[in-house]
Amino acid sequence: MSHARARPSDIILDLLRSARSRRQSAAALIEAGALFGFTENTMRVNLSRLVARGILESPGRGVYRLSKRTDALNDFVERWRLGEDRVQPWEPGRWLFAHGADGAQAGRESCRWALDALGFREVQPGLLARPENLALDLNALRDLATGIGLAPDVVLVSGTPQGEPMPVRWLSAWNPAALNADYADAVARLRESARLLTELVPAEARLECFRLGGEMIHRLAKDPLLPAPLVDTEARAALHQAMLAYDRQGKEIWAAVNQQELNQMPRPQLATA
């Protein structure tokens, strides 16, 4: 699978998100862009555009940070580290439903993105659902969803569908077989990359960590977290563990350069609607 996280804006957002204070100097960001072949002018243009869009702020001359409105999304991404702690045992027949996303008064695309990121899929026209196995009550789920784009007029409810407790026709909305195949593929790619990292020169190893690590964190952050027996939860847990190990290896590679670059180690910024 190809990786397309090499845009200047992605690099800027990733570096800012990973910084402990979520701020960096323009010089540091430009230097990072050079690793990917981007010129100083290209990086400065992208910085200006991100500020104009309200995604970045410049609290001081030559210094940039993520705007306050992006903090909730960053916190959502970091939930990947919780792994299987994000879910609880599922009582078959219990589902969460979301209604009104298509008619949301504002931010319709962001609203649908937020629901998709939390594993909701459209099971019939105008109605989205997911198994009720998240380790969040409805209030906490709404708070999390609102932070990443859910419109306030979307209704979230818990319930049991009439008839079948687990409608077979709904499962195609998640394609469980594809999810299981992806888990196995991702683990294999992480292990192969981890082996290759020991053979690459430092600059190439840093790029490899950025690209593959970012892709896998994106995948884990947005995993629909379906319960067993709908998917192979052991395979999903194995992917989480493999990514934790890869993340540790990546930190060691960056630490070998210097402490400053370790603090700048990239993390993925989810591309929202």
Summarize the structure in words.
- There is one protein chain.
- The chain is an alpha+beta fold and 273 residues long.
- Helices cover 48% and strands 11% of the residues.
- The chain contains ten helices and seven strands.
- The strands form two sheets. Strands 5-6-4-7 form a four-stranded antiparallel sheet, with no helix packed on it. Strands 1-3-2 form a three-stranded antiparallel sheet.
- Strand 2 (56-60) and strand 3 (63-66) form a beta hairpin.
- Helix 2 crosses helix 3 (40-52), helix 7 (176-197) runs antiparallel to helix 8 and helix 7 (176-197) runs parallel beside helix 9.
- The protein is globular and about 60 Å long.
- The two termini are 22 Å apart.
- The relative contact order is 0.15.
Q: Would you summarize the structure shown here?
A:
The chain is an alpha+beta fold and 273 residues long. It contains ten helices and seven strands.
